[in-house]
Amino acid sequence: AQSVTQLGSHVSVSEGALVLLRCNYSSSVPPYLFWYVQYPNQGLQLLLKYTSAATLVKGINGFEAEFKKSETSFHLTKPSAHMSDAAEYFCAVSENPGGYNKLIFGAGTRLAVHP
Amino acid sequence: DTAVSQTPKYLVTQMGNDKSIKCEQNLGHDTMYWYKQDSKKFLKIMFSYNNKELIINETVPNRFSPKSPDKAHLNLHINSLELGDSAVYFCASSQDRGQADTIYFGEGSWLTVV
Known about the structure:
- The complex is a heterodimer of chains A (115) and B (114).
- With 115 residues, chain A is mostly beta strands.
- Chain A contains no helices and eleven strands.
- In chain A, the strands form two sheets. In chain A, strands 2, 4, 5, 9, 10 and 11 form a six-stranded mixed beta sheet that branches. Chain A has a five-stranded antiparallel beta sheet with strand order 1-3-8-7-6, with no helix packed on it.
- With 114 residues, chain B is an all-beta fold.
- Chain B has strands at 4-7, 10-13, 19-25, 31-37, 43-50, 53-57, 64-70, 73-78, 87-94, 104-105, 109-113.
- In chain B, the strands form two sheets. In chain B, strands 2, 4, 5, 6, 9, 10 and 11 form a seven-stranded mixed beta sheet that branches. A four-stranded antiparallel beta sheet of chain B has the order 1-3-8-7, with no helix packed on it.
- In chain B, strand 5 and strand 6 (53-57) form a beta hairpin.
- Chain B is globular.
- The chains are: A mainly beta (115), B mainly beta (114).
- The interface between A and B is medium-sized, with 24 and 29 residues.
């Protein structure tokens, strides 16, 4: 079975600082990987996804992630944090048992941005 | 215009009651899902339907019964509610059931059982 591990349940950065949220995956086949963001009391919004094309994936709101097979990682970065980036971030891998799609989520990382 | 909408957003009810959460998507997608987020924010799939047909049924108590009257709607009925059912329930949809398909989530329904 596939899985993802998010290192660090809480990350705190200063406004303007680099954001780095870590995600490692476990998969016996080439994975499809996703990052979602959840703002307080809201649903999940897709930031970006890796589907075996370019290894550097650009997403919305200035976020990007790099797929590194040798490190089984898909870390999310943003060069300069904004106060509005404070949210819960989820890394997920898509599992496709019997041709049916389902997302396996990591435990999430709460990002705090302080002035 | 909300792509995946679910009602109610907040629901407080007593143990033993039966409740339903409704979901509709206007994206023209073929596949819909129910995910559960527990108090520790952990997200797990419960069910998936493709064109009204149940295709994924995770290990969920049979008190939970999804119903899909058409491919744009997927409702969740819960019988005999228990304290442990308190969670956020997310409806979601995707174009098809491909592994690369983006899954779009609704705003969530916050269920509190007292």
